[in-house]
Structure formats: structure tokens, C-alpha cells
Amino acid sequence: MVYRSTLPITYITDCRDDNTQGRLKARVSTYFPGSNVVFVGVTSALEGADLEAAINLVDIIDAYDGNPGIILANVAPRHGKAKQWPNGTPFGWVKVGNVDIFSTVDGYTLSLLQKLLQKKLRVKVYDIPTVVPHMELDKETQKRIIHTQFRSLDYLPRLAAALMSGKKLPYQTYSKFADMPLAICWVDSFGNLKTNILPEEIKFRVGKKIVIRVSENKQLRLPCFARLKDIPDDTVAFTIGSSGMENRRFIEIMQQGKRASYALGIDGATMVEYVPS
Predict the structure, then answer these.
(1) How far apart are alpha carbons 118 and 9 in whole angstroms?
(2) Which of 25, 143, 262, 265 has its CA 20 to 30 A from that of 132?
């Protein structure tokens, strides 16, 4: 079953090597002919992938600018707490405005969106062994999908296309999303550190110095500036960044003329704690 449309599709995934992205794009394009498919690769490290996925999910929704679009998101570790699931976290479907989101439901991938919406998300979850027999597939394909380790290729594009086409599939409702912790979620190509922190959460004020703890033995005390252009040369500072949704924009840590990530020794997603002064 294919879904013919010209809706933009963004695939956020920790399967980000060239081979995998090529296969995923070919599969998504097959089931969504006419759509433009864009990939966002997040870290494949065991920790931090869902933090990176969370901020990218919010940013892509914002980039669609209120227009219809589709987002596929897959961050599905099989270790640790993920052992609670038979074969990794299940996939769910939720619509936010005009955007249809098909995503893994465990971890923090959907938590930042829930935080910005300021309400509990209720997601339709589609259990693979329960759903696959209803997808008009031959028995061998059904068996392969149920047991595959590559569910983001074998299952997710088919599921999204079937549902967008109006296919009725059995589901359960899921709403047990973890609260989003404060974190540095993304290091961009300029070395800027994108956080998921709203200005009011750290009492941001231009001219003020604010402290956050990034590990047991490391704290950062940085000044606040309204925009990057206001930060003095070589200075690392907090400022209001570009990431977020509508009028709610997150704090970024930037260094004027250099890479804040190098100056602070932070190269990926990192939990932080606000230290009130």
C-alpha cells in the first residue's frame, strides 16, 4: 500500500551511515511516491540519541511552518530498560497541527514536544505482531517484519503509508512519556551547543551570569546576551537560539568567533542542572 502525495517527509534516525540512509530513502520513496524525503542523522551512541532526536523533532515541526508534513522518527536501542519491549520500543502515531508524526515511543524522543505543547501526548501505538497480519502482506513478508532487527526499514515506512492512506489498523493508546530533563541536546556545525532549556527555566536576563552543572565536577558560569552579535569576541555565553517552536525558543551556548564545544569540552548530548544563584 502506497500513499501518493507531495507532502515533505523528514526521517530522524540513529541509523545514519550512508548504506542505511540510502536503503531507508529508497524504501520511504517507494511507499510515498512524489514526496521529498530528507534525513536527519542523530548520534548512534548508546546515550543521547533520543535527546538529539527530541530537539530535531521540534525543529522540523517548526520548519514546516504550520503546513502539512510527515515526520518519521526512530531511536530504538535494545539494551537496558529497552528490554521491557519484545523487540525494542514500539512505534506510535500522533498528529500535531498539520504534521503527522510516526515515532518510537520509549525514551525522550517525544518528551520535548510534550513539554512545549504543555499537555500530555496521547499516541496511538501499533504493536508489530498484532498489526502486520492486517497490512495485506504475504506470509513470508509478515514473518520477516515481525522478527526483523531493521524495523525502521521493514515496518515503519509501510505502517506510515498504510495509515496515511486511511487503512484501519489495531492500536493501543500510550501516554507514559518521561518528563524532559534539562540538557544540551545538539552540537551544530559551528560548535554551538543547543539546549532544550527555555529562558524562563533559568531566569535568563541580559547582563546576568547563570550557572549550570554539566557533571559532578564541572559547572559553567556564563553571561547572558540577547543575540550572537552582542557576545564579545572569544567570550562563551548564553543567548536565545534559533531552535524551538513558534515564539518559544531555546537557550544556546555560543562562543563569538570560535567553537563553544571546544572551549567547554562538550561534544554531544549532555544532561545539565540549573544552579540558582
Answers:
(1) 25
(2) 25
